[in-house]
Every structure is written in C-alpha cells, then in structure tokens.
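Case study 2.
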Amino acid sequence: MARVKTQTSADPAATGDDAPNPIWFKPVMFGFMLIGLVWIIVFYLSNGAYPVPALDSWNILVGFGIMLVGFLMTTRWR
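Prediction:
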C-alpha cells in the first residue's frame, strides 16, 4: 500500500522567532523611515512653518522619532 503524506498545520522550523515577517512589514518599516526624513526636510525647507508650527524645533525630534521606529523595526526583519 502507498503511504499518504499528511500535511502538518505548522512547520516547526518556521514558528516563533524564526517565522518570516508578514508581507506588510517591509513597506511599513521603510515607510516610517521615509516619512521621518520627509518630516525633517519639510521643516527645514519651510523655515519652521511646516509640518506643525506649534512644535517649533521639536519637529526635528518628531521626525527622528518616526525614523527611529523604522530603524527599530529593522531589528525584527527576517
């Protein structure tokens, strides 16, 4: 008789920390980095008038914070 190979529900090699990232992970990661960069560029080109005038120089920190989220996501990229 021929044996039928049954398919398991989860591959033990691809579970936990070794699992690949979802398809949305890379676009979101690079998106955060680009949005932070654009935030800072807009701040400098507009002489502080944009993106949020009330934040004044704190706009730089906001831009770097957004970029930092993207860079932190690179540590989980598989």
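The CA atoms of residues 32 and 70 lie 5 Å apart.
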